[in-house]
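Model: You mentioned two targets. I'll fold them one after the other.
Researcher: Yes, keep them separate.
Model: Target one:
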Amino acid sequence: MTIEFREHHTSGYPFQLEVIRSGSLIGHVRRDAAGVCRYYRGQFNELTAEFQDRDLERLKKRITEQEDRS
């Protein structure tokens, strides 16, 4: 199944990506003020980051590998 990353604009976060699999939201990525990107797995999870990395492309690859296994 293909994982897609779609930019999502919100007033509370300057940068956010939705993580989509088969048309369903499965998580989101946020970048904080220090430049660290964090992946929050689950549609409503906003507290516990599954993965984090300063390199967005590396984080996307890790998310894709993890979600392809699930």
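Model: Target two:
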Amino acid sequence: MAKLDEKFNSKDWEWIAVHFPRSKRETMAKVAWLICCKCTPEEISQRKIDPRIVIPLCAIVLLDEIDISNLKISTVNLIYDYTKFKRFEQKQEFIDSLTYSISSSERWQSLFKTLDIDLQFTLLYRLIAYRPATRDDWRDIFLDVELKFSKELYLSLLLILLTVLLFFGFYIGVFFLEGINNINLFVFHLKWCMWF
């Protein structure tokens, strides 16, 4: 075991475990390293592995072990074909045909098969439709964007409120000027009080 510890560098693998509690991050990083570098495909296929480890391994670390360019299917067709299947077996056959056509390694296949069918499809779709993911993408995927959204919401509401106030201010100003020009001051004030 000491030999493995010497080769494991937590700084190289910490990005994969950022979605785990702080107390488990180093352990999960080591688990990811062991799965990726030391486990055989047979050992991998016998385990149920957390998708938070499998997805970055398949999409980032082991991406060079597959050849996505072999797929000649558009993403629209891909989604349409997948959504028309209702039964699990049909979905699994479709995913199997896609993974067969991407020429993947046994290690990548065994990791990929540990995901449930919908995660398998989503991962394949993302690999086909978008640019290759990076470590920073995985690290930032669950950033708290609520604060930014709430600031934008408050600013939008403030802008709407100011627009409405300006509109009513302009309307009142026009009413005021028109009233002064057309009638005597007493009638103007009477109309003004009745309006409010």
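Researcher: Noted. Anything on target two?
Model: The chain has two domains: 2-140, 146-195.
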